[in-house]
Write a structure and sequence with these properties.
The protein is mostly helical. It folds into three domains: 158 residues; 106 residues, Orthogonal Bundle (Cytochrome Bc1 Complex, Chain D, domain 2), CATH 1.10.760; 109 residues, Cytochrome c-like domain (Cytochrome Bc1 Complex, Chain D, domain 2), CATH 1.10.760.10. It has 17 helices and six strands. The two termini are 44 Å apart. Keywords: Cell membrane, Heme, Iron, Membrane, Metal-binding, Repeat, Signal. Its main location: membrane.
Length: 408
């Protein structure tokens, strides 16, 4: 009997949200659309702990300034959104103000969600109110002083936030505009892939050109020829987002989670729209730097290590094996301006994400136990400057720093 009040609270919340939506004749379609929008926004990533009720919050989100926890966004009246109105929710999505005017930290990516239309927010609101309320109290603000003082966000928003729905570009196709709306809005791709300023805001003039986040390098995903996706076809981008792999790369780290919980479930037409949009960004004729000299002592050492440790899977010419072992030759992540992800994968190993379309994820073992910092640096320098690749060398100090950061 104790569950009845919770159940009825959820039903009352749903009824209220649907009443705001109109006459209720399309209420189930509205909830279904909202459910899909929640997938597009990957709400699970920040609001659902593994093994716990969906959207009950508590997920730790590491930022350069400390940790915040994802909020409970179920319709629970005491710990969630049960006392909120749609206007409260709209205000949160559009300008980062929670109910009562409390300012939110941009770990909740309202800087991207501000571009979401009011109509889509209404559908998302209807879906959230259809969930079962969960009594889970979450204190979201875990930041140390002085970052835990929310008044500082007044200045932060003035410097780093621009409010407003996405405005379609009349000079572009409907597909391009759909892709831009998804990437800039609910997809919030810039939250990971756009470089950040000293205060943690996006450097919008470098949109999607790559950024280090939580010990991973979120790579350049523009159409740049050398460091971005200029050599990927639109079909290959779609395949990667749908399956977690293509001939160039396999999703790992935070991107693997995004594929698992979000992009593999997107409609094909939305994936195609995203591919169309991001391929249009950047410079396809981006100049390539000169590779490190093959005669360099580090390159010669790296070549020997590659032959012994890496070539059996990634092949002697770096071509790899499609959907099994990623290609290293002329691969965007390999040519990235920052080698953090490459170092991390060599140290810790990696297992590709398992998706509905590709349920068996191949793995790479850890080499931290049998390769020194100097040897990892040498082999990565060799890989980053062979088979058409060209990038800055990796130092033993880079490897040592990340190895220390990864210790429990």
């Amino acid at each position: 009997m104790k569950t009845l009040p919770v159940f009825y609270a959820g039903m009352l919340g749903l009824a209220a949200s649907l009443a705001q939506a109109g006459d209720g004749s399309d209420s189930y379609d509205l909830v279904a659309r909202g459910r899909y929008l929640a997938v597009l926004g990957d709400c699970t990533a920040c609001h659902s702990l593994p093994g716990q009720p969906a959207f009950a919050g508590g997920v730790a989100i590491d930022t350069p300034f400390g940790t915040v926890l994802g909020a409970n966004i179920t319709p629970d009246p005491d710990n969630g959104l049960g006392r909120w109105s749609f206007e409260d929710f709209q205000n949160t999505m559009s300008n980062g103000h929670a109910r009562g005017g409390k300012r939110l930290y941009a770990a909740m990516p309202y800087t991207a969600y501000t571009k979401v239309t009011r109509e889509d927010n209404r559908a998302l609101w209807a879906y959230l109110n259809s969930l079962e309320p969960v009594r889970h109290d979450v204190e979201t603000n875990q930041l140390p002083f002085p970052f835990n003082i929310r008044a500082s966000l007044i200045a932060w928003n003035w410097l780093a936030f621009k409010e407003g729905e996405y405005q379609p570009d009349p000079n572009q196709s409907a597909e391009w505009n759909r892709g831009a709306y998804l990437v800039q809005g609910l997809g919030h791709c810039g939250s990971c892939h756009t470089p950040k300023s000293l205060i943690g805001g996006d450097k919008n003039d470098e949109f999607l050109t790559g950024s280090v986040l939580q010990g991973w390098m979120a790579p350049d995903i523009t159409g740049n020829a050398h460091t971005g996706l200029g050599s990927w076809s639109e079909a290959e981008i779609v395949h990667y987002l749908k399956t977690g792999a293509n001939r160039f790369d396999m999703a790992s780290g935070p991107m693997a989670e995004a594929v698992e919980h979000s992009t593999q479930h997107w409609k094909d037409e939305d994936l195609s729209a995203v591919a169309t949009y991001i391929k249009s960004l950047g410079d396809e004729q981006q100049p390539r730097p000169e590779p490190w000299a093959a005669e360099d002592a580090t390159m010669r050492t790296g070549a020997l290590i590659y032959e012994d440790q890496c070539s059996a899977c990634h092949t002697p010419d770096g071509e790899g094996i499609t959907n099994l072992f990623p290609r290293l030759a002329q691969a965007p992540l390999v040519n990235s301006r920052d080698a953090t992800s490459l170092i991390r994968v060599v140290l810790a190993g990696s297992r590709a994400v398992a998706t509905d379309a590709a349920p068996t994820g191949p793995a790479m073992p850890s080499f931290a136990w049998n390769m020194s910092d100097e040897h990892i640096a040498a082999v990565l320098t060799y890989i980053r400057n062979s088979w058409g690749n060209a990038a800055e060398p990796v130092s033993a100090g880079d490897v040592e720093t990340l190895r220390d950061d990864m210790k429990p």
